[in-house]
Amino acid sequence: MALPLLREELALLDGPTLADGQPSWTLHDPARNRFFSIDWVTCEILKRWSLDDPGAIVEAVGIDTTLQLGIDDVEYVGQFLLENQLVQPQGPKSARQMAERLARQRGSRLKWLLHHYLFFRIPLLRPDAWLGRWQRVAGLFFTRTFLLLTIGALSFGLLQVAHHWDSFFASLVDHFTWDGLSSYGIALFSVKLLHELGHAFTAKRYGCRIPSMGVAFLVMWPMAYTDTNETWRLTSRWQRLHVAAAGIATELIIAAWATFAWALLPDGPMRSAAFVLATTSWVATLAVNASPFMRFDGYFIVSDWLEIPNLHERSFALARWKLREWLFDLGEEKPEHFPEGRERGLILFAWAVWIYRLVLFLGIAVLVYHFFIKLVGIFLFLVEIVWFVAMPIRHELKAWQQRWPAIRTRRRSWITGASLVAILIMFALPWPGRVSASGMLRPTDVWPVYAPGPAQVQRFELQEGARVTAGAPLVVLATPSLQSRQAAARAQVEQLRWSAATAGFSVDSRSKLQSRQDQLATAEAELASVNEELAKYAPVAPFAGRLRDIDPDLHAGIWVGRKERLALLVGADAYEVEAYLDEAMVKRIQVGDRGLFMIDSGVGPRLELTVTNIDADASRVLNAGMLAASAGGTVLTRDRRGLAIPEYSVYRVTLAVDSPVDSLSSQSWRGKVVIRGDWEAPAWHYLRNALAILVREAGF
């Protein structure tokens, strides 16, 4: 069988030593500037490819080396060469075959459009010659002296930030304006440009050619890029690591010197610019570029560090194999063999990447949906979901379909299927309702004791926690102004009564009797009003209970101000629990449902509850501030003029306490409330939320 001819311009270069100790080689395709890492077996076959016969190649390799190959090994290499277009076109049908292969790669116009919407590059510069001319100047940044100076600047800058953290954080908050955000945009552009130059100068330093630099668009988001494919020429993985880490190192250097400048410069535009440059560099480096979950710098650093090229694809293949073994126990051969610890790490890494990408792409889809007009946003949202979420799942399901004859015969498959059906049934069948939230236990009867106005304490003999009966006096206050008014009103009443009683002794007095009686009625009303006002200065207990929160300075002779709280009378008989539930939870309970309460510390009795009231309208303000999430509760709120405003609709629910409170009496306690609500299928909860979102977004 004749073998296809290799393309004459291909170059076989020495590659790095692999992690298992065997040598490797790099096959360079200069026409497309692509590099292929090949192992010892492939290299020995390619060296003898001119023999033009698989049997002869196998025999020659067996004579010249210790390798024992078969015809299928040569055919596998031939297939690799054909798929990657590394052979010369031969025969009358070669042009058609190449055209068909190109058409398959490009796909339909819709696929081409979707692919170029998701990712495409625009080369802008051919910087190779320019980088060579400036290499000597750039070399100053690779010296040990500059490294030590940068470490010193970083240490000083971070120390100053730690000492002036309040000022640094305040500057961060102050920059969240339109002007500040525009400054961050300019700083981000500058940092990313220097980031790419860091890659370019480092690669050029090791002798690689930099054919292009430009802008890449990921879901229409612009990012600078540098073509450093020629780093595959490097035989040292440390040199490749240096090139991969050069961008991050450049941003860290910028961050270090910008932080140093912020620490030294006085307040003004220059210091603000240094602050923006420093924060942009730190965030862009640590949050984006250092992540190994996307194909950014962190990915290539980890890949070169572990000496595992194509880290994502190889870890994904291993994780998919492990998933099939868990689910179906197919007994298939592993895609690759690694030490047990590394294999486990690669599988966990693949799962972490999948979860990270799922969250990221869902977030991008939501942003795309909201940033475009609704019709276009819906289409682009579906593109994101289908391309990044549904397509990988479809490919895996297709792999299961291909293995279906083996899957349906395995015992593990039946166990997996039964488990899946059981889970679906559990989600579809109603479960006993259980609604939980933070609640506040407090006495039903609470009466604060206030001073109605400025007054002097005349008599107060009760202590903290003293038990009082209904109608018992609590405190006696003296107010000279009201007492003077009382004495004057009483004297006037006595005088008018005497005048009215003696009106019949003379003709003149009898003529003024009606007038005197009217004056007497007015004076008696005035006296009653003053007495009623004075009664407020001698409050009595409206119900039996205990006195709490007594002012420790309260004693006879002391003056108190208007509306000053003196004590709190707490009822000892009835208690209630107040809780706030969202709309979904409120629909599952009704008046009369039973519940339990336990304080947050877990110490104390478990109290039995009964729902007594559910507000029909959502609460605009949270009355019990201790139930806010900022105070340790479960209700998300925002502060507005000292009021706790709920972030979403919550409804106030009141529950009566049916069991003795014992040690929890006479005080308020925060704890967890659990209410036995209506039965509901878990799936219905998620379906209801999804339908609510669809209804909300359906309008154009």
Briefly characterize the structure.
The chain is an alpha+beta fold and 700 residues long.
Q: Please identify the structural class as seen in this structure.
A: alpha+beta
Overall tally of structural domains: 5
Biggest sheet architecture:
6 strands, antiparallel, barrel
Number of strands: 21
Widest sheet, order of strands: 7-15-20-17-16-21
Helix content: 40-55%
Shape: elongated
Gyration radius, in Å: 41 Å
- Average pLDDT reading: 80
| Terminal CA distance | 65 Å
Count of DSSP H/I helices: 23
Q: What percentage of amino acids are in beta strands?
A: 15-25%
Uncertain parts:
none
Which structural traits does this protein have?
six-stranded antiparallel β-barrel; alpha+beta; four-stranded antiparallel β-sheet; 5 domains; 16% strand; 700 residues
Structure explained in plain terms:
By secondary structure, the chain is an alpha+beta fold. The chain has five domains: 11-106, no CATH class; 110-307, no CATH class; 308-409, no CATH class; 434-476 and 537-679, OB fold (Dihydrolipoamide Acetyltransferase, E2P), CATH 2.40.50; 480-531. The chain is 50% helix and 16% strand. The chain contains 23 helices and 21 strands. Strand 16 and strand 17 form a beta hairpin. The protein is elongated, with a radius of gyration of 41 Å.
Write the layout of secondary structure elements.
Layout: E1 11-14, E2 25-29, E3 34-38, H1 40-47, H2 54-64, H3 71-83, H4 94-106, H5 109-118, E4 119-125, H6 128-133, H7 135-138, H8 144-163, H9 165-174, H10 178-205, E5 213-218, E6 221-226, H11 237-264, H12 269-289, H13 297-306, H14 311-328, H15 340-371, H16 374-402, H17 404-407, H18 411-428, E7 435-443, E8 446-450, E9 455-459, E10 467-468, E11 476-478, H19 480-501, H20 507-511, H21 513-535, E12 545-548, E13 559-560, E14 565-571, E15 575-582, H22 583-586, E16 594-599, E17 607-614, E18 637-640, E19 643-646, E20 650-657, E21 669-675, H23 682-697
Antiparallel strand pairs: 1-2, 2-3, 4-5, 5-6, 7-15, 7-21, 8-14, 9-11, 9-13, 10-12, 12-14, 15-20, 16-17, 16-21, 17-20, 18-19
Helix pairs in contact: 8-9, 8-11, 10-11, 10-12, 11-12, 11-13, 14-15, 15-16, 19-21
